[in-house]
Amino acid sequence: MTAAAPHIPVLLDEVLAGLAPGPEEIHVDGTFGAGGYTRAILGQGARVYAFDRDPDAIAEGKPIEEAAGGRLTLVPERFSRMAEALAEHGVAQVDGVTLDIGVSSMQLDRAERGFSFQSDGPLDMRMEQDGMSAADFVNTADEAEIADVLYELGEEPRARRVARAIVQARPLSRTGELAEVVRRALGHRPHEKKDPATRTFQAIRIHLNAELDELEQGLAAAERVLKPGGRLAVVSFHSIEDRIVKRFLRERSGANPAGSRHLPDARAGGPRPSFEAVAKPVRAGEAEIARNPRSRSATLRVAHRTEASPWGLSVKKEGRQG
Question: What is the mean pLDDT of residues 38-55?
Answer without folding.
Answer: 97
